[in-house]
Design a protein that fits this description.
Length: 71
């Protein structure tokens, strides 16, 4: 947990920005049309997409008392 997820919940968003950039590159390589629509036409940044997605990791798969500790 500390190695992989703690950085998503800290004030420093450097790791999130790196992972969002990787997500953006993967989207561009796998579906250029969706990439163009989201990033160019709608001007949505990869961080805007990834933050709620990554911060919600494990919500449905861990017991509530552990989820509260994670968040």
């Amino acid at each position: 947990m500390d190695i992989y997820l703690r950085s998503y919940f800290s004030a420093n968003t450097a790791q999130l920005e790196v992972d969002a950039a990787l997500f953006s590159k993967a989207l561009e390589n796998n579906d250029p049309q969706v990439f163009k629509k989201i990033m160019a036409e709608l001007s949505i940044s990869p961080v805007t997409i990834c933050y709620p997605w990554f911060s919600g990791l494990f919500v449905g798969s861990v017991p509530t008392e552990y989820l509260n500790r994670i968040w």
